[in-house]
Amino acid sequence: MEVIVTSSPAHLAGLGADAVLEAMGRRARPTLGLATGSSPRGIYAELGRRVREGEASLARVRAFLLDEYVGLGEDHPQRYRNVIARDLLDHVDIDPGRVRGPDGLADDIEAECVAYEQAITRAGGIDLQILGIGSDGHIAFNEPGSSLASRTRIKTLTRQTRQDNARFFGDDVEAVPVHCLTQGIATIMAAGHLLLVTTGRAKAEAVHQLVEGPISAMWPATALQWHPHVTVLVDEAACARLQLAPYFVDTFEHKPDWQGF
Ligand code: F6R
Q1: pLDDT, tens digit, for every residue of 133-158?
Q2: Could you tell me the CA-to-CA distances from 255 to 65, 211, 244, 247, 259 in Å, in that order?
Q3: 114 with 107: CB under 8 angstroms?
Q4: Which residues are catalytic?
Q5: Measured from the CA of 200, which atom of ligand 1 is nearest?
Q6: What's the CATH number for 2-256?
Q7: What is the pTM of this model?
Q8: Choosing a second label site near 37 at 20 to 30 A (CA), which of 9, 86, 118, 129?
């Protein structure tokens, strides 16, 4: 696991955009996994800038969302399909018709989850998956207690996650849906490269568990310790609990130029 302690939001966004473009450049028809929420926004803005200024193109990219709330109407501003349109798709050259998320309005939820897994497989798998992390250690919406072997399915959000996300729903925790559809941990683990990005003191315990904790369903992100290619981008506040932080800083300072992500 490579942990990079970034020096500013711009530094984090630049490295994140570099990692995405590097992975997307490796295949003729690359596939990108998209997280929503606050954490990847700087990276999405930087990708938008590079595409707008002709420095990069994502025109060949197909994309899959990590998760979706169940039951939010088509036009609800917090439906993740709409959030990702505002945060990324409106600013880059990805064809919106080649972006798919689990359908939280599907009549047959179980069939939708199976179809979603099949669609990812048909696309040849996900080359790079962007991830955030919840303060309770969730990745996508795999809450504590999730099977580390799980695939796309319905989950119940914890009170903690609904409280954390109430800021997007006018600070009304009751307005945050109780259910979501989410890629499972095994779905995420099948991606070629995992890029987890997070900032702020509120995530420090989760980052400590992710990197240094024992692997446990109580902290679902710890499953990433089994993945051979993980990059974690954090700020200083988010690594306040990391015993290995000085080692990671030293490692990044001495990273060979040829190594890339
Ligand atoms: C969103 C997702 C979640 C978030 C996590 C952190 O698609 O999968 O796991 O990444 O809840 O959210 P933020 O980035 O808003 O702190």
Answers
A1: 999 999 999 999 999 999 999 999 99
A2: 31, 19, 16, 12, 7
A3: no
A4: 67, 136, 138, 143
A5: 16
A6: 3.40.50.1360
A7: 0.97
A8: 118
